[in-house]
Amino acid sequence: MSKKLVLAFVLLGLLYGCATAPVTGRKQLILIDPKTEVRLGLKAYEEILKKEKLCNDPVISTLVQRVGMRIARASGKHYDWEFKVIDKPDTINAFCLPGGKVFVYTGILPVAENEAGLATVLAHEIAHAIARHGAERMSIAMVAAFGETLAAHLFDFKNPRTRELFLAAYGLGTTIGVILPYSRKQEYEADTIGLYLMAKAGYDPREAVRFWERMRKVAAGRKKIPEFLSTHPADERRIEAIKNYLPKVLPIYEKANPKYGLGEKIPEPHCR
């Protein structure tokens, strides 16, 4: 590996590595510029629209759009926000791409139950986007890949089998010791930022606890993997963390104007 390559990587880190997450103030390592991040998000958005069936229920679409835009405005981030509902009753999920393209699966709507439950979901996903968690994960992966190449070069393994074992151990170590813990840290952070956003938007943040308790019941019969092998924290830890943060966001909710509380109950979707 040339000295020029090492120097270029270090300079890249100095130029783009200094970032700060909103609300929490956590320092971040981000090596991808915002324009590239948004461009990647838009490309993924177009691909998803081509392959997924959207729910054309106007009541559901309007409700998701309404709640989503309230959260988006509370974020203060001027993305080109769009909110789409994917017709998949068996998929309990939602996600937000870099640049503000948000997808909600119909399967999560019964768990949300009401607007505040949906706000919990949308605020969490929007938090990922405004905190640039996707770019941060890509940056961590880049650093891990660079470290692997650098270590292999420095040790200069002569035996191919030794090199193979080293790279396998390195990959496992960085995944369990760095990448997965970072992912769980981002999930906690998205919960924290999300609580702030939904409170600022006028939705009762206490519903976040009830939403995750409902999620825990839904997941009760499913096979669980150990938390240290998961990208997400255990539901019990997540609920406890949310409860601990509620005293900080309830005053924000009390000052919100207008205040929507739990909002409307989410009707059963009728996608055609």
Structure at a glance:
It is built from 9 helices and 5 strands; from the N terminus they run H-E-E-H-H-E-E-E-H-H-H-H-H-H.
Word description of this protein:
The structure is a single chain. This protein has 272 residues and is mainly alpha-helical. Helix content is 62%, strand content 7%. The protein has helices spanning 3-16, 34-51, 58-75, 109-112, 115-130, 133-155, 160-200, 207-219, 235-255, and strands spanning 19-20, 27-28, 82-86, 94-97, 101-105. The strands form 2 sheets. It has a 3-stranded mixed beta sheet. The protein has a two-stranded antiparallel ribbon with strand order 1-2. It is globular and about 45 Å long. The N and C termini lie far apart (57 Å). The model is unreliable at 1-11, 162-182 and 225-231 (pLDDT under 50).
Amount of beta strand? 5-15%
Radius of gyration: 21 Å
Q: Helix amount, in percent? A: 55-70%
Which residues form runs of ≥5 with pLDDT under 50?
1-11, 162-182, 225-231
Strand numbers in spatial order across the main sheet: 3-5-4
Q: Give the overall pLDDT as a whole number.
A: 82
Mind summarizing the main beta sheet? Answer: 3 strands, mixed
Shape: globular
Structural class given helices, strands, pairing? mainly alpha
